Amino acid sequence: MMHQTSSRLLRMTEDDRPFTRGLQCSEQDFKDLFSTLMVSLPLTSHRVRFTRIEHTFTTEEAITNLGSLKFSQSNRMPDPKDPSRIVTTTTTTTFSMAKEMARSVCMRFLEARFVESVEGKTDFNSRGSVWQLTPKGMHILSRFCQRNGIHQKHVNELLDSPKNMMQLVILERETETDKLVHDEATVQVLFRRFAGDTGPNLKVHSSGSDSDSMSDYATGLIGVRMQRSRRNDKEAPYVFTGKAAYDWLMDCCTTVDKREIFELANSFIANELIVPAGDERQAPAGTAPRFAASKHVLYAITQKGMRIAGWVTSPNGSVHGDGTASRVVPNGVVRDSNTNRMTVIISDPALRLLFREYLRETHCEENLAFYVEVRSFLAEYERAKRDTSSPRLDIIRETLASAYSLYNAFLAPGSPCELNIDHNLRNALAGRMTRAVGEDEQMLKSLDEVAVLFDQAQSSVFKLMASDSVPKFSREPKYARVLRERNLEGLMNSFASASIS
C-alpha cells in the first residue's frame, strides 16, 4: 500500500484568516476544510421550534469534529508489474485546531454563506444552535465529493435534495497569491451574470430587493434583484441596493471573504458598469465613489453596463466598438488553429471563466480542473525545489501528497474524475505512483519523476480540450457574442504571429 500523509495545524492570522505552515490558507483549502467537516458530520434531523429540520448539525458537533478532522482518499488498482497484486494508494489530510480556533473557522463559514442558522443565530456561541448548508455550501460540497469520489449515504441524501440547485460562478484566482483576478475583461464576464444575461431581474415592489432570504438566488442563474428607477432616468433605468449586490456576489460566486465582495463591486464602479444613484450620485469633489453594502444606498446599471450585459447592442455589434469580423488573418497563420485558441483561453482569465462554464454544462469540467490543478502543483513543485529552509523534507512530502491527491482524483484507473489520456502515459503514471517513494533525497527524486509525468499528462489533456471542446465552445451561440467582444480570433492570431516570428 502506498500511503501519503499531509497534516495541517490551522491557526488564525491577525485579520482572522486561517493559515497553515506559515502560509495563508488558500480559497481552495478553505473550501476543502469546510467540505471535509460536512462529510464528517452525521447531518441528521434536529428539532427547532416543534419542527424537525433534515440534514442539519449543531455548533457542538461542528466544533468537536474540527478539533481533529481527517480525510482519506484511496484508490485500488492492479500492480502494473504484477496484475494479480492489488495496490492501494492513499492520501490522508488531517486538520487540527484548538476549540476557539474552530469557533472562528465556523464563523468564517457563516460569513462566506456556506452555512446558515435555522434559528436566526449570528454566531456559534451556543452549543445547541442548529445549522444547515446554504445552496452555495451544497454546491461546494458537491464539487468536493465529485472530485474525491465520496458516496456516503447521508451526504448523497443532502446533495440529491431539491435545495441543491446552485450554479456558482467559479471566480478565477492568481496562482501565486490566491487573489481574485479582476482585470476589466474578467469583471465584464462576471458582470453579465450579476446583471442577468437574459434581462434585469425586476421585482414589482421595491422592498423585494432587500429580502434577507438566501433563497433569492438559490440557482445562481438570475441576476441581482432590481427595480425601475423612480426618476424615470433613461440613461440608467434600473437600480438595485448595495445590500442586494452584496448578497448576490456572496451567494452566487466562490467568494469566501467580505473584502472580496467590496473588491468586485468597486471594480464594477471603476469599470463604469454601475454608478451610485439617488442621493449618493454626487461623490465629494476629488474622490471616487466607493461601494456601500447598504439597503439604503442605490446603484444604477449604466448604458455601458447594459451593453456588457447584452441587454442592448452597440451599432457595430461590439461592446468595445471594434468589430472583429473584418480582421485580416496574418500570412502563415492557420485561422482555425484550435491549439492557439486553447492557449489564448488558458491564458486569459475572462475566457477561462467562460470556458469553464461551458465545460460544466457539457460535463467535461474535470479536464480544465485537472489542467489548472497541475499548473498549481508544478508551481508548488518548483517552490519546493528552490526551498532551502528547514524542514525541507516536510515541504517535499506535502508536495508529493498533493501529487497523490491529484492522481487519485483524475488519473488512477476508476478514479472519480478519470481523464482520457494516452494508454502508455497512464501505465507510466501507474508504475510511478504505485512504486515506493523512499526517504530523504530519494523522496526528491521521486517528486522529480512525478512532476515530469504530470507535465506530460497536462499536455495530453490540453490537446484533448483543444481538439474536442474548443471547436464546440467557439460555435456555441450562447458564448459567440462574448467571444467576438473579447476578440478571440484576433488574440489567437496575435499569439500565432508571435509564435512564428
Automatic annotation (TrEMBL):
One of its GO terms (biological process) is negative regulation of signal transduction. SMART domains: DEP (SM00049), RGS (SM00315). It holds the Pfam family DEP. Residues 220-303 form the DEP domain. InterPro entries: DEP_dom (IPR000591), RGS (IPR016137), RGS1/SST2-like_Fungal-DR (IPR058855), RGS_sf (IPR036305), RGS_subdomain_2 (IPR044926), WH-like_DNA-bd_sf (IPR036388), WH_DNA-bd_sf (IPR036390). The keyword Cell cycle does not apply. It comes from the Eukaryota. Keywords: Signal transduction inhibitor. Residues 341-483 form the RGS domain. PANTHER family: DOUBLE HIT, ISOFORM B, REGULATOR OF G PROTEIN SIGNALING. This is Developmental regulator flbA. It comes from Hortaea werneckii EXF-2000. The lineage of its organism: Eukaryota, Fungi, Dikarya, Ascomycota, Pezizomycotina.
